[in-house]
């Protein structure tokens, strides 16, 4: 996810609010859910809904329409943050603490905290609204301890992720699944959209010896799965074998980008502010460790890049000469107020998205890295990109000056092998 810190502000924890959404969408599910096994062992709660409802209903909405039946009689811990909202703007915490027959014991938060605003290690605290303990999973520990799980017989995960391998929310989910398996605790995932669509899979596969908190499991950078589908993959392919239950969405389609869901976009982390930024994020984030600002500390994070030693016009011209699909590059200097190169004027390049469906952000990132290495070998350090790229061959090829097209072509065999594995866990068309 976000490796480097900044002081940018993101929306504070949301208060309850109601949006103008047809209430019928939320109550379209009239039939009590039944648990139907799927091939990988997870139990997916299946329900009926009105064919007239086109707005996407997230897992939380479906659970509410089921009157929380899968959780009744359970003592639960909720893993969530500010992105856990239902169709009316009610938080997951509020919904579950008032659910009949459900007792909430504790709250758990991933990186950036319950309000999604912090870019540092976070201490555990108490929720001022519910009075429940809030255990940070991005502080002294990255996984729930025995003491934190005391008295809990089900964990509920409801967090919007970014659809990118190095975004840490999904590692937090996986660590919690591991602890749930160890403690014989049921694990529920309230599914949410992959914001950059569920069809596009790209980037190098993670080398098996490079797993970490920003790289939980060998995947391509952009894997084209919802968080619920990813949980199923982790559970089986990484042999977690927890008692996993996915509450699927209604009306979501694989070709949807987030703006096509009808859902309100909430920045899942301080710098992932816009839908445009979410599309470009995978390919830009890999560049920062090499020595360039990717817009942190500006008004357009993940929509521009630059450095004091860069000449924006030269870089933009070379990038446009490569005719990279779906994007156009424009010289644009900027001065970050925080993060890398804070308070320094950076020669920069702004990225215009012409067709988000055509954008292959990892291809774009490799093209940019290739040009920066050619123009500024004394400033741009390709080797430091390895942490997020996670693939030795890709980094070696960049260092050797291989064409970006050759590097991207080199991913094909791994992506082809990954495709049938991924398809086993698809829940949506």
Tell me what the structure shows:
The chain has 429 residues and is of the alpha/beta class. The protein folds into 2 domains: 23-266, Uncharacterised protein PF07075, DUF1343 (Rossmann fold, 3-Layer(aba) Sandwich); 275-390, Alpha-Beta Complex (Aspartate Aminotransferase, domain 1). Helices cover 26% and strands 15% of the residues. It contains 12 helices and 14 strands. A hairpin with a 6-residue loop joins strand 5 and strand 6 (133-136).
Which terms summarize this structure?
429 residues, 2 domains, three-stranded antiparallel β-sheet, 12 helices, 26% helix
Beta-strand residue fraction: 15-25%
* CATH structural fold name of the largest domain: Rossmann fold
Query: Helix content range of the residues, please?
Result: 25-40%
**CATH class type of the largest domain:** Alpha Beta
H/E element order: HEEHEHEEEEHEEEHEHEHEEHHHHH
User: What is the second-level CATH architecture of the largest domain?
Assistant: 3-Layer(aba) Sandwich
Ranges where pLDDT stays below 50 over 5 or more residues in a row are 1-41, 45-53
Biggest sheet record:
9 strands, mixed
C-alpha end-to-end distance: 27 Å
Annotation, overall tally of beta strands: 14
Q: What is the assigned CATH homologous superfamily of the largest domain?
A: Uncharacterised protein PF07075, DUF1343
Structural class by secondary-structure content: alpha/beta
For the CA atoms, what is the radius of gyration?
21 Å
């Amino acid at each position: 996810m976000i490796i480097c810190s900044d002081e940018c502000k993101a929306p504070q924890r949301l208060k309850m609010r109601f949006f103008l959404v047809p209430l019928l969408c939320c109550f379209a599910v009239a039939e009590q859910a039944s648990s139907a096994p799927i091939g990988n062992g997870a139990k997916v709660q299946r329900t009926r809904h009105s064919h007239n409802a086109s707005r996407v209903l997230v897992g939380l909405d479906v659970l509410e329409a089921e009157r929380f039946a899968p959780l009744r009689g359970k003592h639960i811990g909720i893993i969530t943050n500010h992105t856990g909202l239902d169709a009316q703007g009610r938080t997951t915490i509020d919904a579950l603490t008032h659910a009949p027959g459900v007792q909430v014991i504790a709250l758990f938060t991933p990186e950036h905290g319950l309000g999604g605003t912090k870019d540092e290690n976070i201490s555990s605290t108490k929720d001022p609204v519910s009075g429940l303990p809030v255990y940070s999973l991005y502080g002294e520990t990255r996984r729930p301890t025995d003491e934190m799980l005391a008295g809990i017989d089900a964990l509920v995960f409801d967090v919007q992720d970014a659809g990118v391998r190095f975004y840490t929310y999904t590692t937090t989910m996986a660590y919690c699944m591991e602890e749930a398996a160890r403690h014989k605790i049921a694990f529920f995932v309230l599914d949410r959209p992959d914001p950059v669509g569920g069809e596009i899979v790209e980037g190098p596969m993670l080398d098996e010896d490079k797993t970490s908190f920003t790289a939980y499991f060998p995947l391509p950078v952009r894997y084209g799965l919802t968080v619920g589908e990813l949980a199923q993959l982790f559970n089986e392919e990484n042999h977690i074998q927890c008692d996993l239950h996915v509450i699927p969405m209604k009306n979501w389609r694989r070709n949807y980008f987030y703006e096509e869901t009808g859902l309100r976009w909430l920045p899942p982390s301080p710098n992932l502010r816009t839908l445009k930024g979410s599309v470009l994020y995978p390919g830009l984030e890999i560049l920062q460790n090499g020595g360039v600002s990717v817009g942190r500390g500006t008004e357009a994070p993940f929509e521009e890049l630059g450095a004091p030693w860069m000449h924006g016009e030269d870089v933009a011209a070379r990038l446009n000469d490569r005719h990279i699909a779906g994007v156009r590059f424009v010289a644009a200097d900027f001065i970050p107020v925080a993060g890398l190169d804070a308070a320094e004027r950076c020669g920069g390049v702004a990225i215009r998205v012409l067709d988000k469906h055509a954008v292959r952000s990892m291809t774009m990132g490799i093209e940019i890295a290739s040009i920066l290495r050619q123009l500024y070998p004394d400033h741009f350090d390709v080797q430091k990109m390895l942490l997020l790229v996670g693939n030795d061959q890709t980094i070696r090829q960049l260092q050797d000056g291989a064409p970006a097209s050759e590097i991207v072509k080199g991913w094909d065999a791994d992506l082809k092998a990954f495709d049938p594995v991924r398809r086993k866990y698809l829940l949506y068309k």
